[in-house]
Automatic annotation (TrEMBL):
Pfam families, sorted: MS_C (PF20659), MS_N (PF20656), MS_TIM-barrel (PF01274), MSG_insertion (PF20658)
Full protein name: Malate synthase G
Keyword check for Metal-binding: yes
Complex and partners: Monomer.
Organism encoding this protein: Steroidobacter flavus
Protein's cellular compartments: Cytoplasm
C-alpha cells in the first residue's frame, strides 16, 4: 500500500498527489486549493451511485441465473424469455426517434473513414509509434510482411521483392488516382504547371498539394475518399533512382485516430502503475513524450512527429496533421483504486478517477496546444457499460468533470463500447443518453462473447468457442451495431467502429478479410500495429464507406430476438479428443496471457497460440476463454480433473514458447508455487462467480501478490 496524504476529505497516494500538483496542474489554470475539494465533492456525489450500478448488475444476474435454473433441461421459449428480461428491467423501452447532435468533432472522427490503433498507455515507445502512425510507407508495409506472396531474401535490399512491391503500389495508384491518359508505370516526369499537375489525373481535383519546386517536385499529394496519398519523388534515392519518375515511396494517410488505453491492454494495479500511465498520457498531451531504445546496436530516441507542410496547386502554404487524433480509454465502472481513498477509507471508483485525471491532463492540449484536437475536444472511450442507466451515469459524470475543470459543456466527448449484452440489446437507448456528446460506437466481439456466456451461464452448455463467430447472435450483433448507429444519425458526425485484427503477422489474410469492416459500414476498425494501419488504409480507398451508409440505411436492424438467442449446443456428445482439444486451446491461451500479466505486468502483447501463431491478446480474450471452460465445467462436459490436466499440459507448452525470454518465470513443473498458474486456475474455477465474468478482480489480486513477492 503506497503512502497516502490528506487532500481535502480524501487520502491520495503520495506519488499521485505529487504528480498532479507538480506536473499536471501547472499550465491548466487550476490550482490545488480548487482542484482537490472539487474532486472530493465529485466523488462524494458519484461514488455511491457507481457502487449501486454494480449492485444492479449483480441483482440482474442473480435473477437470470434463477430463471435458467428453474427451467433446467427445458427448451427456451423466446417470447417468454424476452418478457422476463423486460420485467426485470434488463431490457428497456426503445427511445423515440432521434438524431445525435454532437458538435465540435474533429474531421478524423466525424467525416473521414480510416484505421484506428489501440495502444497500451504504459508503453512510451508503442504510444509514440501509434500517435505517429497517421502516415505510413506502403512500400515498407508490403516489403516486410506477407501482404504479398513470398518474402524478401538476404540481409540487404532484395530487388526482386522490391519490384513486386512497386508493381502492387502502382496498381493501387492506377485504381485510386488514375491518369487521364496512360498508367502510372508510364510517367517519366511530374511537374506542376500553372497550378495543374502534368501528367494530369482523370480527376484533376484529386491533386491537392506538392513540395519542392513546381518544375521538379519532391512530393505530390493526392486525395481520395477523404484520405491523402503522398508520392515521394527522389531520383537520388536507391529506389527512386531506378524508377522512371523518380518514385521512391508511396505514403498513405493511415491511422486517423488512436486509442491510448488505460484499460484492457495494461496491467495497472496500484498508484505507481496509474501514475506511469497518466504520465505518458500527459507527455502526449503536452507534446513532450519521448522514448529511447536500442535497435540494431544503436541508441534511438523517438518523439512526436510534427505537422506536414505543403503547397497547394496554386502555391498557397498549408499544413496537415502529422499525428493521429488521440482518444483515452478509461476503465469501466467495476474496479476501484487504492490511489485515492474516500473519507470512509474505501477505494475510489477507478473509472471516476480516470475520467477526472485523464481530462485534467488533456487540458494541456485543449487550453494550450490544440495539437491533438483542433476543435478543443477531449475524447474518452468508456468501456464495459451495461445498459442505458450506466451510460446516463457516465454522461452526468462528464458534466461534473467539465464543471470541475471549468470546461464548456460537451467538451468531453464519449466513445461507447458496445461490448456487453445489456448494452447491445438496448443500444439505441444507450446512444440516446449521450446523444449530445457521443463520437463513436464500437463492437467488441471477445468481451461481448464473454458476457454472452456469463449472462447465460446456467442456461446450458455453450457451443465450442470457435463456432461463436458463426452463431446467429453474433451476426445480429455486428449488423445491429451499424444499423442502429445509422438510424441515430451517426454517419458524418461520429465513428461507427469494428473490432481488432488480432494476428499482426498475418497481413495477407488481413488484406483479404478486413475489407469486410468498411463494407459493413464501419468508418473505422482496429488494427494491431502501424504497419497494419497502413495496409488497412487500402480498404478505405477500395470502399467508399459513406456511400455504403446510404445503401445500408435502407436495411432494418436484425431482430432483437435473434440477438438474444443463446448459443447453446444442440448436442453435447463431443468425443474425449474434441473436449481435450477445446480445453487445451483455451488453457494455453489463458496461461500464455496470464503469465505475462502476473509476473511481468504486461497487459497486452503478441502471445503465441496453441499453433504458435502470434495473436495480440488482452483481457477480452482471457474473459471468453475462462468463461467458456467455466461453463463446460458447470454442465458436466468436462471434469475438474480434465481442466487441471489441461492446465498442467499447457503450462509446459507455454514455458517452452517463452524459453527465449530472459525475464520469463517458468510455471512448470512446480505449478503449485507459480502465482501465474494459480491465477489462471482461479479464473476458470471461480469463473462462474466473478462479476459478469470479468477477469480484473482476480488478475489484480494476483499481480499485487507478485509485486510484493518481487519487492522482497
Amino acid at each position: 500500500m503506497p503512502n497516502h496524504v490528506a487532500r481535502a476529505s480524501l487520502r491520495v497516494a503520495e506519488c499521485l498527489s505529487t504528480f498532479i500538483e507538480q506536473r499536471v496542474l501547472p499550465g491548466t489554470g487550476l490550482d490545488p486549493e480548487d482542484f482537490w475539494p472539487g474532486f472530493a465533492e465529485l466523488l462524494k456525489q458519484f461514488a455511491p451511485e457507481n457502487h449501486e450500478l454494480r449492485a444492479i448488475r449483480d441483482r440482474l444476474q442473480a435473477q437470470i441465473d434463477q430463471w435458467h435454473e428453474a427451467r433446467r433441461g427445458q427448451p427456451i421459449d423466446a417470447t417468454e424469455y424476452e418478457q422476463f428480461l423486460r420485467a426485470i428491467g434488463y431490457l428497456v423501452a426503445e427511445p423515440p426517434a432521434f438524431r445525435i447532435d454532437t458538435q465540435g468533432v474533429d474531421a478524423e472522427i466525424a467525416t473521414l473513414a480510416g484505421p484506428q490503433l489501440v495502444v497500451p498507455a504504459l508503453n512510451e515507445r508503442f504510444a509514440l509509434n501509434a500517435a505517429n502512425a497517421r502516415w505510413g510507407s506502403l512500400y515498407d508495409a508490403l516489403y516486410g510482411t506477407d501482404a504479398l506472396p513470398g518474402k524478401a531474401r538476404g540481409p540487404g535490399y532484395d530487388a526482386e521483392r522490391g519490384q513486386q512491391v512497386i508493381a502492387y503500389a502502382k496498381r493501387f495508384l492506377n485504381e485510386t488516382v488514375p491518369l487521364q491518359a496512360g498508367r502510372h508505370e508510364d510517367v517519366a516526369q511530374w511537374t506542376v504547371q500553372n497550378g495543374a499537375l502534368v501528367p494530369a489525373l482523370s480527376d484533376p481535383a484529386a491533386f491537392v498539394g506538392f513540395t519542392g519546386p513546381a518544375h521538379a517536385p519532391t512530393g505530390l499529394l493526392f486525395k481520395h475518399h477523404g484520405l491523402h496519398i503522398q508520392l515521394v519523388l527522389d531520383r537520388k534515392h536507391p529506389i527512386g533512382r531506378a524508377d522512371p519518375a523518380g518514385l521512391a515511396d508511396v505514403i498513405l494517410e493511415a491511422a486517423l485516430t488512436t486509442i491510448v488505453d488505460l484499460e484492457d491492454s495494461i496491467a495497472a494495479v496500484d498508484a505507481d502503475d496509474k501514475v506511469a500511465a497518466y504520465s505518458n498520457w500527459l507527455g502526449l498531451m503536452q507534446g513532450t513524450l519521448t522514448a529511447t531504445f536500442e535497435k540494431s546496436g544503436k541508441t534511438l530516441t523517438r518523439s512526436l512527429e510534427p505537422d506536414r507542410e505543403w503547397l497547394a496547386p496554386q502555391g498557397e502554404r498549408f499544413t496537415l496533421p502529422g499525428r493521429s487524433v488521440l482518444f483515452v480509454r478509461n476503465v469501466g465502472h467495476l474496479m476501484s483504486t487504492s490511489a485515492v481513498l474516500l473519507p470512509d477509507g474505501s477505494q475510489a471508483p477507478e473509472g471516476i478517477v480516470d475520467g477526472v485525471i485523464g481530462s485534467l491532463i488533456a487540458l494541456h492540449d485543449v487550453n494550450n496546444r490544440h495539437a491533438n484536437s483542433r476543435t478543443r475536444s477531449i475524447y474518452i472511450v468508456k468501456p464495459k457499460m451495461h445498459g442505458p442507466a450506466e451510460v446516463a451515469f457516465s454522461n452526468r459524470l462528464f458534466d461534473a468533470i467539465e464543471d470541475l475543470l471549468k470546461l464548456p459543456r460537451y467538451t468531453l466527448k464519449i466513445g461507447v463500447m458496445d461490448e456487453e449484452r445489456r448494452t447491445s440489446a438496448n443500444l439505441a437507448a444507450c446512444i440516446y443518453e449521450v446523444r449530445h456528446r457521443i463520437v463513436f460506437v464500437n463492437t467488441g466481439f471477445l468481451d461481448r462473447t464473454g458476457d454472452e456466456i456469463h449472462t447465460s451461464m446456467r442456461a446450458g452448455a455453450m457451443i465450442r468457442k470457435n463456432e461463436m463467430k458463426q452463431s446467429e447472435w453474433i451476426r445480429a450483433y455486428e449488423q445491429r451495431n451499424v444499423q442502429i448507429a445509422l438510424a441515430a444519425g451517426m454517419s458524418g458526425r461520429a465513428q461507427i467502429g469494428k473490432g481488432m485484427w488480432a494476428a499482426p503477422d498475418k497481413m495477407g489474410d488481413m488484406l483479404t478479410q478486413k475489407i469486410a469492416h468498411p463494407s459493413a459500414g464501419a468508418t473505422t476498425a482496429w488494427v494491431p500495429s502501424p504497419t497494419a494501419a497502413t495496409l488497412h488504409a487500402l480498404h478505405y480507398h477500395a470502399v467508399n464507406v459513406f456511400a455504403r451508409h446510404g445503401q445500408l440505411a435502407l436495411d432494418a436492424p436484425a431482430p432483437l430476438g435473434t440477438l438474444l438467442k443463446i448459443p447453446l449446443a444442440e448436442k453435447t456428445d463431443w468425443s474425449a479428443a474434441q473436449i481435450r482439444e477445446e480445453l487445451d486451446n483455451n488453457a494455453q491461451g489463458i496461461l500464455g496471457y496470464v503469465v505475462r500479466w502476473i509476473d511481468q505486468g504486461i497487459g497486452c502483447s503478441k502471445v503465441p497460440d496453441i499453433h504458435d501463431v502470434g495473436l495480440m491478446e488482452d483481457r477480452a480474450t482471457l474473459r471468453i476463454s475462462s468463461q467458456h471452460i467455466a461453463n463446460w465445467l458447470m454442465h458436466g462436459i468436462c471434469t475438474t480433473q480434465d481442466v487441471e490436466a489441461a492446465l498442467e499440459r499447457m503450462a509446459a507448452r507455454v514455458d517452452a514458447q517463452n524459453a527465449g525470454d530472459p525475464n520469463y518465470r517458468p510455471m512448470s513443473p512446480d505449478t503449485a508455487n507459480s502465482l501465474a498458474f494459480q491465477a489462471a486456475s482461479a479464473l476458470i474455477f471461480e469463473g462462474s462467480s466473478q462479476p459478469n465474468g470479468y477477469t480484473e478482480p482476480l488478475l489484480h489480486a494476483f499481480r499485487e501478490k507478485a509485486k510484493r513477492r518481487d519487492s522482497l
